[in-house]
């Protein structure tokens, strides 16, 4: 298979190539096309040229294109799943869920309307709020959910009448390039473009005068760079950034039940999830029991290549992240107690056994920073007011969760947590009907739902005077 860029409806080689590593073997397993600055400019210009015609098609026509994209994706779903596992590392079952999510999102957006809202219809005037597409949308995604995150952006952007230049992370380019091939003959030329870089074209893409909107998901540091680079042309921005989600377990939980759920929330996608549970606060009365149970669950989770049927946790996605997580684990040896994992299985590949650290507090990097990998700190608390303060004492504000058998107590704690989402007795549940937005340094704007779709449009008010005879 030749993995090429999609520019202006054509599959092209690009001026450079990029080696792609399978994180389960740490070996190069594929090579793909990589864009130069010239290729990037051509992709943006193609998207710009395609915009007027696409923007003026009817909503129904765009909905039909989205439905065809969903069918095309389903027809080649198995191929994308396997490729995603190879380049990203996640188990095949997780890849199947992620890839299935693309056609699900496309069909969801294909069912939406973008209605004109009548603000006032009085004797003197009729005021209507229309939502117009913006133009070229740069969709920039990270390596943890390369397929699904891309779809979150392009499905909504295309429905709204924008054209798209999609840029995946350089360690997971293949699934996006394959989607480009799959959609090539389904979407009008230039409406959907895919480019790949070596982490070096982001600034050009986010500063290019023909790009009108940047929908970015990634780290907070890069998000800040995007904001600066978009400023001179006043691009619209949606930034979905990092998090350090806390989970607070109240003293009325069953340790066995809660441990299984928090383990699943912390180790989803091997901890490489923006809304993974990243700091677990447990009341002192349950602390030992929850820690023991987490150790048992971690010990039973099979770590291995995503292509092997019984794998629960695959490798960390790339070498940089792998080394970062290993260094964080090393550091905890002096400030906490590793009670599960802390080591790596024998053999090649970026594998780390699921790691649980107890008797650790704020001040340790594992607690204060976003680990984004298979290690979670379990922190003891005794006073509820104090733990809420500790959970809020972070620059991040993506999500938090409260765990309790008493709905009123849980709701009272949830009301005091500072984040875009607070979950009760679960962590990480999202969906296209629910706006997803980070507070504080976790982002700006929203994706999903009416709020997210609105950010892909420009408000246009039409205000007609009724009484004036002309
Ligand atoms: P990253 O910020 O390093 O990279 C994200 C994307 O930005 C990649 O495509 C990268 O090539 C591109 N990029 C790099 N430099 C750029 C620049 N100067 N301008 C524009 N784009 C540039 O993030 P990552 O390491 O790939 O992903 C992990 C981070 O993403 C974590 O912090 C995680 O919490 C966050 N994340 C957030 C969400 C969310 O919805 N809030 C979801 C998933 C991941």
Describe the structure.
- This protein is of the alpha/beta class.
- The protein folds into two domains: 5-241, Aldehyde Dehydrogenase, Chain A, domain 1; 246-424, Aldehyde Dehydrogenase, Chain A, domain 2.
- Helices cover 38% and strands 23% of the residues.
- It has 15 helices and 22 strands.
- Strands 14-15-16-13-12-18-19 form a seven-stranded mixed beta sheet, with helices on both faces.
- Helix 4 (92-110) packs parallel to helix 5 (146-159).
- The radius of gyration is 23 Å and the shape is globular.
- The structure holds nicotinamide-adenine-dinucleotide.
- The site of nicotinamide-adenine-dinucleotide has 29 residues, from helix 7 and helix 8.
Annotate the secondary structure layout.
Blueprint lengths: L4 E3 L2 E3 L3 E7 L4 E8 L2 H20 L2 H17 L1 H12 L3 H19 L6 E5 L3 E9 L2 E5 L5 H14 L3 E5 L6 H10 L8 E3 L7 H6 L3 E7 L2 H11 L5 E5 L5 E4 L5 H13 L11 E5 L3 H14 L18 H14 L4 E4 L14 E4 L6 H4 L6 E7 L2 H9 L3 E2 L1 E5 L3 H8 L6 E4 L14 E2 L2 E2 L4 H6 L2 E9 L5
Parallel strand pairs: 7-8, 7-10, 8-9, 10-11, 12-13, 12-18, 13-16, 15-16, 18-19
Antiparallel strand pairs: 1-2, 3-4, 5-6, 6-22, 11-21, 14-15, 17-20
Helix pairs in contact: 2-4, 3-4, 3-6, 4-5, 9-10
Nicotinamide-adenine-dinucleotide binds next to helix 7 and helix 8.
């Amino acid at each position: 298979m030749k993995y090429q860029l999609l520019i202006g409806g054509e599959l092209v080689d690009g001026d450079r190539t990029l080696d792609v590593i399978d994180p389960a073997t740490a070996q190069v397993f594929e090579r793909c096309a990589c864009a130069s600055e010239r290729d990037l400019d051509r992709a943006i210009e193609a998207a710009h040229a395609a915009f007027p015609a696409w923007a003026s098609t009817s909503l129904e026509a765009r909905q039909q294109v989205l439905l065809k994209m969903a069918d095309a994706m389903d027809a080649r779903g198995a191929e994308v799943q396997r490729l995603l596992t190879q380049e990203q590392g996640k188990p095949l079952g997780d890849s199947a869920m992620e890839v299935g999510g693309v056609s699900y999102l496309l069909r969801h957006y294909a069912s939406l309307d973008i209605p004109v809202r009548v603000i006032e219809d009085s004797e003197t005037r009729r005021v209507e709020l229309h939502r117009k597409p913006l133009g070229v949308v740069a969709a920039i995604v990270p390596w943890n959910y390369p397929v699904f995150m891309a779809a979150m952006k392009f499905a909504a952007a295309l429905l709204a009448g924008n054209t798209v230049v999609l840029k995946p992370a350089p360690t997971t380019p293949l699934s996006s390039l394959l989607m480009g091939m799959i959609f090539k003959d389904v979407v009008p030329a230039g409406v959907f473009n895919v480019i790949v870089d070596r982490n070096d074209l982001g600034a050009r893409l986010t500063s290019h005068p023909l790009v009108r909107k940047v929908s970015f998901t990634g780290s907070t540091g890069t998000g800040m760079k995007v904001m600066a680079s978009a400023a001179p042309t006043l691009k619209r921005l949606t930034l979905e950034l990092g998090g350090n989600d806390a989970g607070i377990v109240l003293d009325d939980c069953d340790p066995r039940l809660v441990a299984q759920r928090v383990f699943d929330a912390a180790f989803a996608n091997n901890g490489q999830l923006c809304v993974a549970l990243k700091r677990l606060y447990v009341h002192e009365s349950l602390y030992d029991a929850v820690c023991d149970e987490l150790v048992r669950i971690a010990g039973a989770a099979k770590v291995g290549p995503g292509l092997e049927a019984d794998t629960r946790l695959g490798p960390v996605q790339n070498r940089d992240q792998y080394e970062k997580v290993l260094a964080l684990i090393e550091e905890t040896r002096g400030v906490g107690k590793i009670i599960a994992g802390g080591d790596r299985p024998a053999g090649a590949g970026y594998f780390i056994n699921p790691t649980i650290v107890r008797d650790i507090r704020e001040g340790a990097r594992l607690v204060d920073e976003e680990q984004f990998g298979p290690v979670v700190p379990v922190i003891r608390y005794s006073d509820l007011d104090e733990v809420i303060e500790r959970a809020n004492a972070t620059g991040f504000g993506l999500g938090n969760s409260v765990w309790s058998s008493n709905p009123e107590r849980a709701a009272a704690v949830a009301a005091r947590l500072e984040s875009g989402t607070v979950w009760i007795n679960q962590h990480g549940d999202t969906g296209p009907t629910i706006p997803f937005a980070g507070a504080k340094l976790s982002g700006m704007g929203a994706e999903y739902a009416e709020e997210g779709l609105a950010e892909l449009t420009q408000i246009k008010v039409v205000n007609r005077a009724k009484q004036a005879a002309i």
